[in-house]
Structure formats: C-alpha cells, structure tokens
Amino acid sequence: MPELAAHVCDVPVNQIREITEAAWATPGALVLSIGEPGFALPRHVLEAGMACLDRDETNYTPNAGIPALREAFAARFREHNGVDIGAERVYVVDGAQQGLHFAMSLLLTPGDEILIPNPGYPTFAMTSRLLHAVPVEYPLYPEHDFQPRIADIEALITPRTRVLMLNSPSNPLGAVIGEDLTRQLVELAVHHDLWIISDECYEAFTFDVPHVSPARFDSDAPGKTRVFTSVTLSKTYGLTGLRIGALICPPGLEQKMNNVMEAIVSCVASPSQYAALAALTGPQDYVEAAREHYRGNRDAASAVLAAKGIRYLDAQGAFYLWADMSHVSGGNVRAWVRRFLAEAGVSFAPGTAFGSIGEGWIRIALCGGQEELLDGVGRLPARQ
Fold first, then answer.
1. What is the pTM of this model?
2. E runs forming strands in the chain
3. 15-24 and 333-344 helices cross at what angle (nearest 10)?
4. Backbone φ and ψ of 321, nearest 5°
5. Is 11 buried (19+), middle (13-18) or exposed (0-12) by CB count in 10 A?
6. How does strand 346-347 pair with strand 320-324?
7. How far apart are CA 80 and CA 249, in angstroms?
8. How many Å apart are CA 191 and CA 45, to the nearest integer?
9. CA distance 106 to 125
10. To 10 degrees, the CA torsion angle through 95, 354, 365, 213?
C-alpha cells in the first residue's frame, strides 16, 4: 500500500497512554497515571443531555455552538478572569485537545515555530508536528520551581517563531504562573509580535493562589489582541467523555474561525452542548467538592512522599503531584514505571512523557479515591 505521510510517522507514542493501557491490562493494578475525575456526574447535567436526545434535537448546530452555551462560557470567563468578553468571541469545541488543534491550525504554517514548555503536555508537540510546524521547547528547571524564565524563552525566539504556548495550572507539574510573570510573558509576546495560546484546562483548581489568565493583560485595541484561551469542562465538571470545551479568541475572527471549524468537525454534538450548558449555569457543588477532594489528596500524598524522603514539587493547582524518583529510575524513568507496574502493581506517568527535563520524575494523578492513592504512593521506594 502507499506510505503514510512522513509527519504522521514522526508523531511519537504518548507515554501516558502507553503505561495506562498496560495498567488497565494488569489485573488489580492501581492506576495513578491518568487524569480522569472519579466523581459521579451531577444529575441535572446528565438529564440535560438526555433531554436533548428525548426531544430529538440532534441536527447540526451553528459552527460556533449554541448561543446560550457561548454566552455561558463568556459569563464564566468574565466572572473568573475579570476580562470583558462577549459571546461572539467564544467557539464551542470538541474538548480542549480539539481547541488546541483549532488554534494551531489558525496560527501556524509549515516551518513555523511554536514555543512549548518542557516539561509540558505531550500533545503540544504532537499537534504542532501534525500541522508541519516545529515545536521548540523552552525549559522549566527544578531549581527554578519549574517556572518559565523570560530570558530562557527569549533566547529561543527566531524569525520563524509565531506562537508562545502557556499552560497554567500546569499538567504535569501542578505549577501555577503568578500575576507578575504572566504579565511579563504577555509583554514578551507583544515585543516579539507573537501569538499566545493559553491552555487553562485546570483553571478551576488552584490551592491558596489565584489563577491568572494571560487574557487579563491582552490589549483590547483593534488588531492588537493576541491571546487564544483554551478552556474545557472535562476536568472542571468531569465531562471527559462528552468532549466539550471552548476556544476564546481575539475579536474580528468570526468568519475565519467558522470556516476552519467547518473543515475540522463542523460542530459539537448537541447533547454534549446542552449538558455543558447545565453544568455552567446550574449548581456548582461538584466543582467545590472536587477542589477540596484534590486538595486533601495533594496534602495526604505529599505527606507520604515527605516521610519517604522523596523530593516533589508543591502543587499549587491542577490535580497532579510531580515527584523525583531518580534515586531508583536509573536514568530511564520510562522503563522504570513499566517495571514498577509489573512488580508493585501501580502505574504512574513517566516524566519523559512531558519532555527531556522530566527524566527521573513521575506524575502522580490525585483525582481518584484517597485510600487507593495512598496505597499506591506508599509502595514507592524511599530515598535512602
């Protein structure tokens, strides 16, 4: 048969899926390698999706989504970020990943460079490569608490650089970028005339620090706005399988975004949109309970790591712990997590899934039950 396109062959294996699928195939394994909220969905959210099917509202929706849902996303963004946006800037997408692909499709041409964090979520690189762009990693070092540094990023900017990718709260790190640094990063993008794609998948979950969106510092002057913000309900409301989120864009791009959305997915499924509308406009008990659950899991798991002498990053957001297992991983943490699964029956995501700086580190998912979490973390070998 004919060969696949070269850029498809170059897309690497997602090491998170690799270890997780191995764990799913291991009887009795504790799966702490994937970020899947474990709470039952609120009944009013389920009923809204089912009601959509009951009334046979299963036709196409506008490319950008049903108007009420776009307004609900805009209202949440205004309330949580203090940014005065209208519903016309909101595009309902088929989950955060499709939103990121959408944004990159708008901004990148073959050979363009996109600055992505290392460690950072693996699809940042995977998606840009599928679009024939070049991912360029900016370092997040342990000695700087895995925070980006302006000088490190600026040193990587070339005439081909088009986009700066930001992610706060961070997956996999749990790190949160503060207000001053966020402002400086936007100023850097302005100075070098770069677009910003801000992945804010975990914006609802920060602990004792605020979430700060780069959109807060984006210019509202015509032609000067540069921030695309990707948000999702997958983590906030546990709607991972409904694939629903939003891409918030600069003004004036409506027709171009409609054209691109039509070419990618046309529109998002109606039941998912109505379930999302119920989640955003209904009681918020789920979000509050989830935040406190993740905080409690973070504190309990951190105490176990500290007692074992294992270095970890104090998570300020998301629902992950980033732990240093270099004392046992032997310079190949990807192979070590497979051995640990086979020997101890627990899966963790290897740090190398997120970039070269992740060598020796693991990502621990905090979103399941605390008893299982502490059992799994308790099996980690202590640092002597």
1. 0.95
2. 30-31, 90-93, 113-118, 134-139, 161-167, 195-199, 227-232, 245-248, 312-313, 320-324, 346-347, 349-350, 361-365
3. 10
4. -115, 140
5. middle
6. unpaired
7. 17
8. 44
9. 16
10. -50
Strand, coil or helix: 66 = coil
Distance, in Å, from the CA atom of 111 to the CA atom of 133, rounded to the nearest integer, reads: 5
Q: Angle of helix 96-107 relative to helix 254-264, nearest 10 degrees?
A: 120
Asked whether the predicted pLDDT for residue 18 surpasses 90, the reply is yes
Rounded CA separation 146/313 (Å): 8
**CA distances, 346 to each of 23, 219, 335 (Å):** 7, 47, 14
pLDDT tens figures, 215-271: 999 977 666 789 999 999 999 999 999 999 999 999 888 889 999 999 999 999 999
Query: What pLDDT, on a 0 to 100 scale, did the predictor assign at position 223?
Result: 65
Summary count for the chain: helices (H), strands (E): 14, 13
Tens-place pLDDT, residues 104-148 = 999 999 999 999 999 999 999 999 999 999 999 999 999 999 999
The H or E element containing residue 343 is helix 333-344
Q: Three-state SS for 119?
A: coil
Q: 267, 239, 274: which is closest to 49 by C-alpha?
A: 274
Phi/psi at 187 (nearest 5 deg)? -60, -40
Mean pLDDT of 176-183: 98
Going across the sheet that includes 312-313, the strands are: 312-313, 320-324, 361-365, 349-350
pLDDT of 384: 81
DSSP state of 14: -
Q: Distance of alpha carbon 119 from its chain centroid, rounded?
A: 13
